[in-house]
């Protein structure tokens, strides 16, 4: 066996013989040279030994590119992209909330130290990158290993563990020209050497904002946040091999909404961003996460692990939906969710068989409280039908409904709703590799998933304005106008409902199978097939105040992978190619009564295909470069709405929303004599459609290229650096609300200063 082969074997053996966190040292792995260990698939495994498409962001890359939040990772990873502002992300063109704008379950999740983060907190929860050991983006279905909410993939964030051998500390200050100030610190070490250690970290961010509100004053996107984390690690001498890690993460965020609009009907709006809303648009998050992990070797090659997580997330989202100086519409949503997970897992590392067997429990409880003032376009068709049913001719009905809409163009409604829900999932899962020969291995896995969910809703809708005078067309038409007024009030009343509940249960078997071939110690290919799943549930039709059930959706994913090293290990090239077939997709269907007469149905089928390539190369002792390319094509193949649906949008032949065909990224690092270093990196995304459907071409945003850089000087334990985001001042939109002259704009050119100390 070659030296490289021996190194790979020893790394793999060490990864399974010891806990995953034991692989994390104070000297992080680099992208070229030292092996990167990934843990997102529930076992510590060398990246080059993993056929799943995984992109890893190391602490070194976070430092040299000044990555602050998970959104920075989204924008620098192949086949990963932001969606609507910071509300979420797509993996291989699939949004974390699903592709068809329907359904309650997620299609991808973010995990912090094993705890799943609710989607309502993703834009400002515990997803900042200070004192983070590693970020893994798992592209493609992870339903076999991760189970719930992983049809598209997942993002796994692992924070730094305490050291048991030495005291270490880190501190950093960042300051930008737009008055964004970030103060970060971390400290930890052994309380009892080789046995008990702790680590504390904190980050405070204060951002003035850049979107000036000329109606209320101040800045709509101003932000203040505090992220605190404490971890305790225990390896008692009395129980050799036992490791226990307890952590607590507290986040408090007060700031702008999950997205912020700027007016586009102003001159030079990219450089002078303003808003005119009379109501505050704010997003406040309070998140608390506790995680307890235990690992213990039952035998030489057998390890037992337990991971318990508890998460409480409270979010309040307020937004002025009309964006004007007038008090017309506003939304105030409050989310409170508690999530409990428990996983037990056995990992085995034999001569030919390596694998795991686990059991998992998940429970999420909580509710959404909605308080809205909305305007519904007066439905002239519904009014005309009402008049004809009461004896009017078609011409009379058309004339009266049009005249009425001239008096009451929109129906103002005050809408209050409470929507409690409970999701409970239990699962058995396994994943294994069996070596038929020294080179050829079989890959297999399964998951049996049982879910029970209960969705409940109670709504109160009230007319919130003044009805037209019955005599505005004269006394002859007063009875007809009074009839229409009664119909409008009845239409609003129909949206009210007493407390109603709907419970659903689902069972899913999710197999995985494949084969891997190590052609040489530095070249491996694999092919896998697996089934993925997104659970069903119930949705409320707001106009009818009805709970409507919908079924799960399923996909089959076919994937090939290449893992390779070249030029004595100085060049690494990894690639994956994939094809997914997806059926029974959950989409939104409209039923004609008004703009709020909709609910989720299973009506679509689709496919997607593409590839990712990632390369890293060391050009010498002082220079390394890296690049990635992702390509995805998505298409709805089938769209068949249920009887009674009045939707005019046919998804057949259209693409997924926020699904760029190409995502490219590249960067270079250079180290100079005297302690100087430099980084330059760029990322490119092709145009995307920001809604789903045939008229999506009207909601297309253009391609964009963003270049960033950093120049630093380090001496001993200190470092000073300058950095720039969007160096070329690219002007682009994330979303364009053209009819209201509003848009979500990309970040402007920003220069900053930073200083850090490490010991």
Could you characterize the architecture of this molecule?
- By secondary structure, the chain is mostly beta strands.
- It is 9% helix and 55% strand.
- Helix 4 (380-389) packs across helix 5.
- The protein starts with a helix and ends with a strand.
Q: Supply the helix-strand structural class.
A: mainly beta
Shape: globular
Low-confidence stretches: 1-33
Which bin fits the share of residues in helices?
under 10%
**Main beta sheet strand tally, sense and closure:** 22 strands, antiparallel, barrel
**Count of alpha and pi helical runs:** 6
Q: How far do the termini sit from each other?
A: 39 Å
Mean of residue pLDDT? 91
The radius of gyration is 28 Å
Q: What percent of residues are in strands?
A: over 45%
Secondary structure: number of strands: 42
Short synopsis of the structure:
The chain is mostly beta strands and 759 residues long.
What are the main properties of this structure?
759 residues, mainly beta, 22-stranded antiparallel β-barrel, 5-stranded mixed β-sheet, 6 helices, 42 strands, 9% helix, globular
What's the helix and strand layout?
Blueprint: H1 3-17, E1 37-38, E2 45-46, E3 53-57, H2 59-64, H3 70-74, E4 80-82, E5 89-91, E6 94-95, E7 108-112, E8 115-116, E9 132-139, E10 153-159, E11 168-176, E12 180-192, E13 196-207, E14 212-213, E15 223-234, E16 243-256, E17 262-263, E18 274-275, E19 282-299, E20 302-319, E21 330-349, E22 353-377, H4 380-389, H5 394-407, E23 410-435, E24 440-463, H6 478-493, E25 497-509, E26 512-520, E27 523-534, E28 537-541, E29 546-550, E30 553-566, E31 571-590, E32 598-618, E33 623-639, E34 662-671, E35 676-685, E36 688-689, E37 700-701, E38 704-715, E39 718-725, E40 733-737, E41 742-745, E42 750-758
Parallel strand pairs: 7-10, 14-18
Antiparallel strand pairs: 1-2, 3-9, 4-5, 5-6, 7-8, 9-10, 11-12, 11-42, 12-13, 13-15, 15-16, 16-19, 17-41, 19-20, 20-21, 21-22, 22-23, 23-24, 24-25, 24-26, 26-27, 27-30, 28-29, 30-31, 31-32, 32-33, 33-34, 34-35, 35-38, 36-37, 38-39, 39-42, 40-41
